[in-house]
Amino acid sequence: MAHPDDVDFGAAGTIACWTDRGIEVVYLMVTDGDAGGFDDTVSRKEMATLRREEQRAAAKCVGVSDVRFLGYSDGRVEATLDLRRDIAQVIRQVRPDRVLMPSPERNYERIYPSHPDHRAVGSAALDAVYPDARNPYAFPELLADEGLDAWTAREVWITGGPVVNHYVDITEQFERKVNALRAHVSQTGHMGDGLPEMLRGWLGANAAAAGLPEGRLAESFQVVDTA
Questions:
Q1: Residues paired with residue 168 on neighbouring β-strands, in sequence order
Q2: Which residues does 131 contact at the CB level (< 8 Å), separation at least 6?
Q3: Do the beta carbons of residue 221 and residue 210 sit within 8 Å?
Q4: Cβ atoms within 10 Å, residue 204
Q5: CA 111, CA 209: separation in Å to the nearest integer?
Q6: What's the CA gap between 29 and 3, in Å, rounded?
Q7: Positive or negative: CA dihedral 67, 73, 77, 78
Q8: What integer pLDDT is reported at residue 19 of this predicted model?
Q9: What is the pLDDT along the chain (227 residues), one digit of tens a residue?
Q10: Which of 178, 217, 213 lies closest to 195, judged by CA?
Q11: Backbone phi, then psi, for 101, in 5-degree steps?
Q12: Exposed/middle/buried for 149, CB within 10 Å: 0-12, 13-18, 19+?
């Protein structure tokens, strides 16, 4: 994901479902979120440190302990070869079956997920899955210098994009999603009791679109076969 809190807004409930089933999850944040927050008395360096701590705390709420950061500048991410290499490196290290990422496409019906950093990370991550991580001749230094063999991730889950083909019922995991988002105090602390209400609106609409019974809550994705 591009920033701390992105994974929690888009997929914390689904992540909790996975970890409850014994699936190991690793987070990779491209930036430290140093351009976030609302407190002018906090320096950008302090904000980066704070947001790393908040993301680690949020991860624990949904059963994730391995949280990694690339340290790119918040608000300035581009889908460069360097970023593709850095993501492919982690894919080869972790060797995942599934990679979750933001959409590289702009969503005109709901613009907020389409932050430029999100789209850049989505584009670079998709290229890192295919073809970079699986091609032993792409970034050959990963094998030569670090012994990282090529790896094929079997599927990609895209969040925040204009196309949805899969829903996950997270009704039982909703409170953990809320707790994960509340761990990002610098970003959500001002929302108070409005945070759960806002989430119920989004997730309830997803559940209705999925044909789930009234009162259920769901997260939405585009799942792409990349095997």
A1: 219
A2: 138
A3: no
A4: 17
A5: 19
A6: 6
A7: negative
A8: 98
A9: 999 999 999 999 999 999 999 999 999 999 999 888 888 888 999 999 999 999 999 999 999 999 999 999 999 999 999 999 999 999 999 999 999 999 999 999 889 899 999 999 999 999 999 999 999 999 999 999 999 999 999 999 999 999 999 999 999 999 999 999 999 999 998 898 899 999 999 999 999 999 999 999 999 999 999 99
A10: 178
A11: -155, 160
A12: exposed
Could you list the beta-strand ranges (E) of 43-160. 66-72, 98-102, 155-159
Whole-number Å distance between alpha carbons of 161 and 115: 11
Token representation of residue 1: 């994901």
Measure the N-to-C terminal CA separation of the chain; round to a whole number of Å. Answer: 21
